[in-house]
Amino acid sequence: MLVQIFMATVLLLATILIHGAAVMILFRMGRNVIAHMHRSRAYARLGISCFFVVGFVLAHVIEIMLWATAYRFAGELQSFEEATYFSAITYATIGYGDITLSREWRLASAIEGVNGILLFGWTTAFLFKVSELLWFSKSAQHPDLHQG
């Protein structure tokens, strides 16, 4: 059980680093565009919003596949497709229960669920801020976008 908890903790930290990198990359790529979008048409702002959403979906897919790789490497699931499916429903805290892990690994899947909740929350907070700047900001300057 300790090996599984250790491995799950390593995966948790790895996905946090991946997500942090995604936040930094997306922020750096989008901050200048956002700073000048306040007078743009709604379709342009929608396009920028979609850029951020797609970027975060890609980050989540990478994180899910990292967990899936660990489950497959541990021999817990029969195929990578099955491991990816299990990881996705666990990460998203859907948990259908049609595929389960052994007793030794089920605590790791609970940690993955916590991981997914945290990273979806982080994504939501970031997208909320982007939406605020793109759709609800009245000022021409966004001082917080010029940092970092």
TrEMBL record:
Keyword match Endoplasmic reticulum: no
Keywords: Membrane, Transmembrane, Transmembrane helix
Membrane-spanning segments: 6-27, 48-71, 83-101, 113-136
Domain called Potassium channel: residue spans: 61-130
SUPFAM superfamilies: Voltage-gated potassium channels
InterPro entries, per database record: K_chnl_dom
Highest taxon listed in the record's lineage: Bacteria
UniProt key word Transmembrane helix: yes
A Pfam family the protein falls into: Ion_trans_2
Protein's UniProt name: Potassium channel domain-containing protein
Organism annotation: Rhizobium mongolense
